[in-house]
Amino acid sequence: MEIFTDAEHLAEARYRRLLKEQSSFIWRRFSDGVELRAYVFLPPNHDTSKSAPSVLFFHGGMWVGKSLGDFVPWAIHLAQQGIVGIIPMYRTFSEYDVSAVEILDDAKEAWHWVYDNSQVLGLDPTRITVAGSDAGGLMALHVALPAKPKSWSIKNLFKREKKTEPAPAAIALFRGVCDIQSEYAYKLTGKLNHEQKSTLNPIHRLQKGLPPLFASHGGRDRLLPWQLSEKLVKYWNKKSNPAQFELLDVADHNYYHFNVNAAYFEQVLNCWSAFMFEHSIWDYSESMDAELLI
Question: What contacts 36, CB < 8 A, 6 or more positions away?
């Protein structure tokens, strides 16, 4: 769970107010009347007839904390650079009687909603990135990774599977949970049985042909060790997929929050941006050198 100071609580309240000023859409509605909204941060003078790159952000909070405002500063800044930021509500343990599998299903559904509505929103469907922190990072990985590869057999060797499922252009993790069989993920996966933990575990679902992965982590994170993120990047590379790990040596668990340390925020933003330019997912513009606008 997130640990907030009084200042961080105030920042979260401010970011929630900023959320209400953005365009929002009901992206999922349940038979019991529950509605989930997606807040869309559009660039100035956004032309929906164009195709802008976008990022779908899944907030942290380990599925119990109210951290919907986590990525507001990121979405605001990226919008100034012509990149659409989307922050969806999703169900959590603390507010709904749901399982971990159902929450992961929300991530998949949110991704499909953005992809299916890309033309209406003025997005390039081939340049939608998924991003997240802690449990939100696990959700981003769940969206991007295919089902666990089937075990080897003669039958599977000659069986051709149709690959019609659209995939994100890239993944970005901000100290994301990437190994659900780790002791540090017990708050998320206590409702999963052994088979589900193995099948849904990102570490077990790696294969060739995955999108580029950018992962960052604070070196002094006492709640979620940085070595887990480094391990994922190493395994990602071993499968011949592009990946980069950015370690902030003296940063703690909340390093990516703008209100905690603007310098860390800018460092990670610059590294992430360079990675996205390198892989031609974002277009470089002079405005990328602008000062932070949060």
Answer: 26, 27, 28, 29, 88, 89, 90, 91, 106, 110
Q: Give the pair of three-digit tokens for residue 256.
A: 């990516």
CA-nearest of 173, 171, 268 to 212 is 171
Take residue 104 and report the two structure tokens written for it.
Answer: 């992961």
Count other Cβ atoms within 10 Å, centred on residue 205.
17
How is residue 192 annotated by DSSP? S
Predicted confidence (pLDDT) at residue 35 exceeds the cutoff of 80: yes
Report how far residue 178's alpha carbon sits from residue 55's, in angstroms, rounded to the nearest whole number: 19
DSSP annotation of 288 reads: G
User: How many Å apart are CA 102 and CA 92, to the nearest integer?
Assistant: 9
The mean pLDDT of 271-281, rounded to a whole number, is 96
- Residue 40 forms beta bridges with which residues? 23, 86
Count of positions (residues) in the chain: 294
Q: How far is CA 184 from CA 1, 64, 188, 272, in A?
A: 11, 15, 9, 25
CB-CB contact of 188 with 100 (8 Å): yes
User: Which residue type does 178 have?
Assistant: C
Residue-wise pLDDT for 187-213, tens only, equals 888 778 889 999 999 999 999 999 999
Beta partners for 123?
52
Distance CA 150, CA 157 (A): 10
The CA distance from 158 to 156, in Å, is: 5
User: Within 10 A of 115 (CB to CB), how many other CB atoms are there?
Assistant: 17
Cβ contacts of 277 within 8 Å, gap of 6 or more: 283, 284
Pairing of β 35-41 and β 84-88: antiparallel
